[in-house]
UniProtKB/TrEMBL annotation, chain B:
SUPFAM superfamilies named among the record's database cross-references: MetI-like (SSF161098)
Localization (cell): Cell membrane; Membrane
Ranges of residues in domain ABC transmembrane type-1: 18-201
Pfam families to which the protein is assigned, alphabetical: BPD_transp_1
Source species, domain of life: Bacteria
Membrane-protein topology: Multi-pass membrane protein
Identification of the protein by name: ABC transporter permease
Organism: Streptomyces varsoviensis
Amino acid sequence: MSRRDRRRPRDERAPGEHEVKGLAFRDEVDVDEPAAGLARPPAPKPPRRLTWQRLTYMPAVLALILLALWLWFRGADLDSIARNSIAGGNVWLRLRQHIYLTVVSTFFVLIIAIPLGILLTRRRLRGAAPFAMAIANIGQATPAIGLLALLVIWMGIGRRAALFGIVIYAVLPVLSNTITGLRAIDPTLVEAARGIGMSAAGVLRRVELPLAVPLILAGVRTALVLNVGTATLAAFGGGGGLGDLITTGITNQRMPILVLGSVLTIVLALLVDWLASLAELLLRPRGLEGSD
Amino acid sequence: MNFWEYIGNRYAQLLTDTYQHASAVFQCMVVATLIGVLIGVATYRSEWAGNLAITSTATVLTVPSLAMIGLLIPVTGLGVAPTVTALILYGLLPIVRNAIVGLRGVDPTLVDAAKGIGMSRLSRLLRVELPLAWPPILTGIRVSTQMLMGIAAIGAYSSGPGLGNEIFRGISSLGSANALNQVLAGTLGIVILALVFDAVYVLIGRLTISRGIRA
């Protein structure tokens, strides 16, 4: 506030003051605090748009990392065990498996968590929300590896158990993001929409969901990044993925394989996060641009 | 052997694992809190440095923990070292972020007032800014601890300490009679530890959050 005061030319009126017939009046309401209990309006920010840097910086860094990895790996001294573990396009296969696990699990997370979040904020089911949140909290305390191991014991080794584990693990953060997003909507907006005669479904579709989009998208991004990470653990239950290279590297004590698997996983995670951040920017409703 | 018999039989081993798990997470959290708050204090006043700290911690947070541990093994070798390094590194991230956001959120008029009554820079920081930023920092610590509980379990794969060993013993003996008991004991142990830590943080919050800003 002090900075704004200093910038303002002397002859201008202070915010909230106005002149009526040569007399200066000041509004009763302090402009800096529009209403009790409401947070201060955020400082006007330049609208966040796709900038050149945002588009090029991350891919350039990732390409450099991959190039360095490739150069280093070509020069690395591989014995027969190490060569065996990358033979027959194994690296490519594991990468594809990893992407498959991430994409499929994220898809299921979204079609489970977002409708469930909407249901739990409707009037009839609102009472169940605290229970769901409590379960979500306990679920967050569960180690991913333990959950995955239990599912493997229950459903047998393979991709199915891994997918189930990844989905269960990521549903909770997206669910709580959706619920928080829908709850944070100014109730007066919903009332106004009802007032002009929109149906409950119309309010949900045309007012509530668009306003909650930023938070839901943030949840999607969290889920994607989380799923890339949890998918590395699929290797422990025979689910494949890049974690397989890491565990092979550790158990056989072949550092090049270990580093290859780790760096590829990290590059994939950063790439997915970057893509999700672009999606966040592009899908944000126009009306919310510039606000946070 | 059912689950309770299993626990009765192996309680000594389970207690050791639980203790090691809790102590590893606790010690790493203490170190991570100290470093994290220091980084926050050092960077929050500069727009550039603070944003750099927040962006880089967010980037590191996207790195899967197994990959991080995998990259640390060539540097530190197997054993406790990679687990502890990874735990401290991941523990830092939410704390740095929340410390910077919390310190920046302190009402500048309060700091001005503190300056006006003649408090030095250090005492302003220690007696005004940090107490006001403490609730978000404590939230960061809670988030970190929950996350470290799971990462410590994965650390067992690189021969780290803790209940993760129980889970991996179960995984490596899939199909045997005790596999389920081992995995279940390890997983439930970690869940219980996480809930106990969380309860302790709630208590710490009650005791340490300044009375003036308590809701």
